[in-house]
Alpha-aspartyl dipeptidase-like
Amino acid sequence: MKRRLLLVSNSTLHGGGYLQHCQQQIQDFFGKNVKRILFVPYALHDRDAYSKTARDKFKTLGGGNTFRLLKSLYDYKLVTEIRKRVLEDGIPYMGSSAGTNVSTISINTTNDMPIVYPPTFAAIGLVPFNINPHYLDADPNSKHMGETREQRIVQYHEEPDTPCVLGLREGSMLLVEGSKATLLGSTKARLFQR
Amino acid sequence: MKRRLLLVSNSTLHGGGYLQHCQQQIQDFFGKNVKRILFVPYALHDRDAYSKTARDKFKTLGGGNTFRLLKSLYDYKLVTEIRKRVLEDGIPYMGSSAGTNVSTISINTTNDMPIVYPPTFAAIGLVPFNINPHYLDADPNSKHMGETREQRIVQYHEEPDTPCVLGLREGSMLLVEGSKATLLGSTKARLFQR
């Protein structure tokens, strides 16, 4: 399998500029010979503005709302096409946040609000596990009573036949080359197994 | 319309016991003549344990995962039945968190992780708007780069024909009697209009 993926947890890290924390990895990933990049702007509402932003500054690639992004990928029949191009032809894929979610088995472990209804939660399936981007460790001082991220992923694993979930902290990213995955960045990740 | 609803943001408030912050309102809502309560335990995985807990202590009514709860309500064909009993027969309905989400037009504004795929995001529709339970004001000191709650609801309202969203802070609840809704509790709410 030829796949080459760079799956980033988040587009902006606190205190830094857009994609600044992963700039070097992006350069290494695409190399000097890539002349054109297909940018998928579906995760935000104003696609023209989002594309312009990405084109101008090469930033926030693949971020936005995961449900909106996945629904549009299905609406335009791009899910199997992207899978084919990445897995069979070796076209490099880079995603951040929502773009990372849709590259995995399913979007069941997104943090986003379900603002639109996609035809399925099954996603492009470029890796045989799920990712939780922006992974957040529980804050013992928090007074908020919503479930912690860990509790949510544990709830997911109560369901049958659910895959591993990689909790990718902000600042981390996963480089996938064929059957080898390497964790890059400074903040590490947490692997949840059913 | 006979409906009587008590829609609570959260089951536990920081520093208090289960349903302690809304105990008086629950007593007032159900009154002295209610002998039996139908408890819907679908939002958590272990339904027997959850039911026992609720029976023993009358707590965490309707909390848990919104997707799991709504999917089970459809699996058991309870959505239209509950709607009918509440709107036509005046059976009182109380929900907290997930139980509040499923009582509205749709679960598009839940905070929960989409761990299962329901047949639709349309919900029971006991009120003509949506609610965001556990509503959280943005923390200016946070270093986390995920979207704020406000940003998520604004993204929802970028979609066409989306209803109002009531951001119900932890500690707040909505009492609905016929066509009149009253905000109870100490922390207030925030109304988002498209």
